[in-house]
């Protein structure tokens, strides 16, 4: 099934959840980075991926000291294979954006190994996120 699963008759791929709340995406906090351009690159890559991954935005994810934050959620196939959401911090350069796209296109958590340099940007999920899953 190539890292995708069915919910209600529709495939649900690996999903990149891009924080665009209080600190992430803030030009004052990271003035040399094109936050809107990053989101455009991610969305265009998702559109060109043939449904291999999706992108959505959300308000503050919590770890503001590690902005920009992107959560890579596994597909159901990835979750069945043991994949769990990976929290990526400091995603404020084009290399990390490209690595996020590559990993998501390859299937994401549970399906494909993350790029080693992206793994160096992994951060723990905030306590509130862990509490909500229980």
Give an overview of the whole structure.
This protein has 134 residues and is an alpha+beta fold. Residues 1-10 and 130-134 have low confidence and may be disordered. The relative contact order is 0.21. The chain starts with a strand and ends with a helix. The strands form two sheets. It has a five-stranded mixed beta sheet. Helix 1 runs parallel beside helix 3. The protein contains five helices and seven strands; from the N terminus they run βββαββαβααβα. It has one domain (5-133): Glutaredoxin, CATH 3.40.30.10. Helix 1 links the parallel strand 3 (14-19) and strand 4.
Pick out its properties:
single chain; 134 residues; alpha+beta; Glutaredoxin; five-stranded mixed β-sheet; two-stranded antiparallel ribbon; 7 strands; 32% helix; globular; disordered N terminus; disordered C terminus
Per-chain topology:
Elements: E1 5-7, E2 10-12, E3 14-19, H1 35-48, E4 53-58, E5 70-73, H2 76-80, E6 86-88, H3 94-106, H4 116-119, E7 122-123, H5 127-133
Parallel strand pairs: 3-4
Antiparallel strand pairs: 1-2, 3-5, 5-6, 6-7
Helix pairs in contact: 1-3
């Amino acid at each position: 099934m190539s890292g995708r699963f069915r919910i209600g008759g529709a495939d649900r791929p690996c999903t990149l959840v891009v924080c665009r709340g209080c600190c992430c995406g803030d030009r004052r906090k990271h003035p040399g980075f094109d936050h809107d351009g990053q989101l455009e690159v991610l969305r265009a890559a998702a559109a060109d991926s043939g449904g291999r991954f999706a992108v959505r935005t959300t308000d503050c994810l919590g770890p503001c000291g590690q902005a920009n934050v992107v959560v890579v959620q596994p597909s159901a196939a990835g979750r069945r294979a043991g994949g769990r959401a990976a929290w990526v911090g400091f995603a404020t350069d084009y290399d990390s954006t490209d690595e996020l796209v590559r990993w998501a296109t390859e299937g994401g958590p549970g399906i494909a190994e993350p790029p080693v340099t992206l793994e160096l940007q992994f951060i723990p999920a905030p306590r509130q996120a862990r509490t909500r899953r229980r």
